[in-house]
């Protein structure tokens, strides 16, 4: 063995080419710091991507809603779900035998205008809890309860809507299409049928939109009668506490904002 090779394979040379424990710990600490710095960035990117997908879904459903009225002499697809053949979508997301039944979506009046079941679900929707078990759902969106005709014998829905136009049966009846919402992203804890009930007086959350960190970081998507879509971020700190239907919060600015875009006085 030559002197040069002996130097390469000597214990002293091998020790010099390795890492000390302190150096390894420094590398691990650096990686952990970088991960901590990158995690919020990656989380924000994921939220933004899911929000974009949600808006895209609602925009496509909104186009289907507009095409339906164009094909039906200005008559709107109906939101009232009880014994109604003309309802925009079927299925109750609180029932185990319907939450994953795609046929319920296909039987709705809007499906023929965009035959994609996937557009009925928000990408951030983690599913509903049925019988204590988390269950994936096929639908995250619900329609404004004032959209579409229904039997007048049903009466005011909700009960607080007596001073308001009971429903819009035709597109021409909507006074401010750019300020009147049609479909929105409903919270997993609230969603059941496709009929989203809003108190037009702005006092009670009968149903409530997506309201959690994982659903767009306490914001929700909705589309309007003129075809455009928006993301609304909550402004009132009390809104985050809403987790049950029929929660009373008079004076809540978020509820008041939604109510103002829901119905018009008689």
Order of helices and strands: HHHHEEEEEEEEEH
If you compute it from the alpha carbons, what radius of gyration comes out, rounded to the nearest whole angstrom?
26 Å
Number of strands: 9
Strand content: 5-15%
Note poorly predicted spans. none
Number of individual domains: 1
Q: What's the arrangement of strands in the largest beta sheet?
A: 5-3-4-7-8
- Envelope shape: elongated
- What is the oligomeric state here? single chain
Q: Percent helix among the residues?
A: 25-40%
> Gap between N and C termini, in Å?
103 Å
Q: What is the average per-residue confidence, as pLDDT, rounded to a whole number?
A: 90
SS content category:
alpha+beta
Describe, in plain words, how this protein is organized in 3D.
The protein is elongated. It is an alpha+beta fold and about 270 residues long. The longest helix has about 50 residues, at about 20-70. It has one domain (about 20-120, about 130-260). The protein has helices at about 5-10, 10-15, 20-70, 100-105, 255-260; strands spanning about 130, 135, 140-145, 180-185, 195, 205, 220-225, 230-235, 245-250. The strands form three sheets. A five-stranded mixed beta sheet has the order 5-3-4-7-8, covered by helices on one side. Strands 1-2 form a two-stranded antiparallel ribbon. The model has no long low-confidence stretch (mean pLDDT about 90).
